[in-house]
Amino acid sequence: MQVSLQALKAFEAAARRGSFKLAAEELSLTPTAVSHHIKNLENRLNVNLFHRQTRQIVLTETGRVLAKATSDGFRKIENALLEVETAGRMVRVTTTSSLASMLLIPAMQEFSQTYPNIPVEVTTGEAVVNQPYIIPIRYGDSTVVAPNDILSHEQFDVFGASGMKPPSWSTEPIVLFTTEWKNSTLPAPPLAAWLAANGLDRANILFKKFDQELFCIQQAMSENSLVFCSTILTKRLLNANLLQHFGTLPMQSDLCYYIPDKPSFESRNTHRFLNWLTMLLRG
Question: What does DSSP assign to residue 212?
């Protein structure tokens, strides 16, 4: 059944305030207009919603049922509008622990300097978050991800702790940290292809594995060793001279950073953040 939204608002206000006059003041209408809206609603529903007395109005039993429903409904709408308005201002992101700690959070000051009026909230988690106002930046197989959802393809290379001497791949044992994902559906880091592209033999290499690149990088730095990992995650550490590169060739992988259904994130602030993030990942 189609009923006037204005009539429902007039009825809800009158029921809540117990007065056509007070409802009219709240809605910036005249008492006559409020009375007219409610009478039309009663005619439409073929019921009496108020007992009209000389100096007051009293809800009928039917009116009490409708009053509760309209009050609950308008409250839900107001809460949803507030949620949407807040979501339009703040950018909420969830991503992997490695990307958050190694690149995204350290770069937040740069984003804030460019966009001081756009607050950003970053949380971590490996699972895809299906909430309409949270952007899930995920790590996945680029061969099965929609092209429009991809932020950046991933490359891998070997890096070493700052100050360590270049590795002698063929004459001495070498410790190399690398990642074995918890998620077995992810493509493995392209270590064999990297060794082949750089003409290296794995015979002298002792591989040590963690399930997150973050731990591999931290352990290599603390042990003055090497790590085979993402070129994206090492950018800031290289710039800060905390890691170094030894001139090897990076290897493209099937891994990528992506956002499921990326085109669905439509707010102006979200677009600004995603454009900035894309440049951060690819720069």
Answer: S
The C-alpha atoms of residue 269 and residue 276 are separated, in whole angstroms, by 11
Q: CB-based contacts of 199: which residues, under 8 Å, 6+ apart? A: none
Burial class, 222, CB count within 10 angstroms (exposed 0-12 / middle 13-18 / buried 19+): exposed
CA 156/CA 139 separation, integer angstroms: 14
Per residue in 115-157, pLDDT tens? 998 899 999 876 555 566 789 999 999 999 999 999 999 999 9
Q: Helix, strand or coil for residue 278?
A: helix
Name the residue type at position 51: H
Q: How far apart are CA 250 and CA 248, in angstroms?
A: 6
**pLDDT per residue as tens digits for the range 146-172:** 999 999 999 999 999 988 998 888 778
* First-to-final CA distance of the chain: 56
- The strand pair at 91-95 and 134-136 is best described as parallel
| All domains of the chain in start order, with CATH | 5-87 (1.10.10.10), 93-282 (3.40.190.10)
Q: How far apart are CA 267 and CA 189, in angstroms?
A: 35
pTM of the model: 0.69
Within a 10 A sphere around the Cβ of 154, how many other Cβ atoms? 23
Task: Give the containing element (helix H, strand E) for 27.
Answer: helix 20-27
CA-wise closest residue to 205 among 176, 171, 228, 229? 176
Structure confidence at residue 240 (pLDDT): 93
Q: Are 120 and 108 in contact (CB under 8 A)?
A: yes
Q: Distance (Å, rounded) from C-alpha 155 to C-alpha 253?
A: 6
